[in-house]
Amino acid sequence: MNGSRYELGLKNFKEIYGAIGTKVLENLNHISPDMSRYIIEFAFGEIYSRKGLDLKAREIVTISSLLTMGNAKPQLKSHIHGALNIGCSREEILEIMIQISLYSGFPAALNGLEVMKNVFDERDKKGTYP
Amino acid sequence: MNGSRYELGLKNFKEIYGAIGTKVLENLNHISPDMSRYIIEFAFGEIYSRKGLDLKAREIVTISSLLTMGNAKPQLKSHIHGALNIGCSREEILEIMIQISLYSGFPAALNGLEVMKNVFDERDKKGTYP
Amino acid sequence: MNGSRYELGLKNFKEIYGAIGTKVLENLNHISPDMSRYIIEFAFGEIYSRKGLDLKAREIVTISSLLTMGNAKPQLKSHIHGALNIGCSREEILEIMIQISLYSGFPAALNGLEVMKNVFDERDKKGTYP
Amino acid sequence: MNGSRYELGLKNFKEIYGAIGTKVLENLNHISPDMSRYIIEFAFGEIYSRKGLDLKAREIVTISSLLTMGNAKPQLKSHIHGALNIGCSREEILEIMIQISLYSGFPAALNGLEVMKNVFDERDKKGTYP
Amino acid sequence: MNGSRYELGLKNFKEIYGAIGTKVLENLNHISPDMSRYIIEFAFGEIYSRKGLDLKAREIVTISSLLTMGNAKPQLKSHIHGALNIGCSREEILEIMIQISLYSGFPAALNGLEVMKNVFDERDKKGTYP
Amino acid sequence: MNGSRYELGLKNFKEIYGAIGTKVLENLNHISPDMSRYIIEFAFGEIYSRKGLDLKAREIVTISSLLTMGNAKPQLKSHIHGALNIGCSREEILEIMIQISLYSGFPAALNGLEVMKNVFDERDKKGTYP
Fold this sequence. Notes:
The structure is a homohexamer.
Chain A (H helix, E strand, L loop, with lengths): L1 H30 L1 H15 L7 H15 L3 H13 L4 H15 L1 H21 L4
Helix pairs in contact in A: 1-2, 1-4, 3-4, 3-5, 4-6, 5-6
């Protein structure tokens, strides 16, 4: 049963993050295979596969939380990729940053815009849409 | 022109928060009328009236940010009311809390659930839907 | 298999937090049974039952993290009880607060001392040792 | 020599916080006399008595830091009293809150204004100036 | 009227940050012209041009807030430059860092000192005073 | 007496951090000799030499606090070295990161694992044990 939860999680994870996710997971496997398993099994097999809030809204929650923390740039980068992969538009990502300036202040928004710009540039180079 | 921005902001603000918002605004007017004006003019006349991200998504961003901060309970309460008023379901609010546990940890989620429960109870007493 | 993970988690949870934990869990069950299950299954069935760091050290990690956040007083209270229940001395709890002042500043330490004092007083009234 | 540092610290502390400080210190003495000593000796005997930044600016630093944390209300209250006692005007305190909204967001500012209002009311009742 | 608010904001912004500010603004204009406009219009045309707290104190508030967040190094760098440009001495900047160690802990202070050192070195190379 | 407190602090500091600590201290001496003195005298001469919590537990407190802040990577690196130097096993360090994921979220844990990996690699290259 845990096995199937892992498989479901891995399927979700790959659908959302694609190649960039696979690389993150491989790195993590070298450091702590258990942590890697918890993220697939619990985060993606359990939480991300819940009903009641669609995947796009879950990524909006995640990006907003990461922007407010302000110190999780690698995760912010991955989740901006993920949000775009599952149907967020670039404009929506930009608007999350502008909205967050009211609650977490301008520095959080500005540092988020910088990460966003890098993700957009990376996708432009590779011709990834959107 | 600022006048119309204020009026637009006040219209947005009242549509989202209703009676609870009016009370928050009156209290704030006694402490700092300028701060009250900035929130109406800038936050609600400017940012909340932007295109590119719908009001429901803006409230999801806001609630996620407030949950991550963890120390802004009065604002969290108002924005859960606001989110429900503009079309979020109770289930979606609950799922935001569950999703946030992955990124901001279980204490942030648990303290958010407590505030959510109080908002739901308050609305049940008054017969407010949803 | 998940069933046995839940049972292991519940056993761990009850051993650490006793009656105060049961009450927290009951409250949470009314708000979100799934969240309650994740905490028992994942946090206590999976993480707290890991080898490599004893339970006392795990509670020191937890209390230090909660002190640094500074906004999770109900959790801090439960975990101070938990730490005392599984073998931390009162003096050790106090020293965690003093040590944290260097890294999270004096306000975090002072607000932690206030919560600690309330826990000690509560235990004194009930004759709980230590 | 440490003795004189303690005495200098206590003199500074009493000049800044007056009666409210004495009460805070007495409470702390019951919980941890060592922590109380560190605050007087190190914070007020060493740091607050440094040259290079006047006391008023030191209180502005402190209030700004506490507003940004957002979870240290008892300390914020004491330091607003302290700032007013050593020469800050009420208008300056208000402006710190408004300025902080840009960097820590509106919730931090609004919750700070609430604490500020309570301090002003308390001083009005006692006829304390300013 | 908004036009003149923008002009006032731009004048304030350029007086405080000089060439380094112009570059920050140009970068931001490429990412989000609206965000750039909000910062000039609202932050610098509205908040920074308020009476009741002088510019030097506003920069002390800002630097203290950024030090406490600890994750906004580009902004911290700009605001240390700004503070020096409008009349803060280097010694005062150093003392803000030392004062903050009491409230946000030593790591926040040490990481701030590192940024401060880089700003001072940069100004020494260019012969900027102070 | 302060002299001996400084000497005790320096002895503690060198025992815990070894060569890496000496380098940190030299850098800091160039930026602010007073800050360097406070860290030796107060942090290591006073707090770290207290009874009631052993050095290993003090480093667990410190690492947990730094992980929760998430923005103090240089300090996290030094304290992982320090913890290993005074008797923590590599497995225990790893488990602190896994435990922290429950309270500060997965991003804090993942970014901590990255720093941990770098410290382990550095020690492997130099043949430092553990």
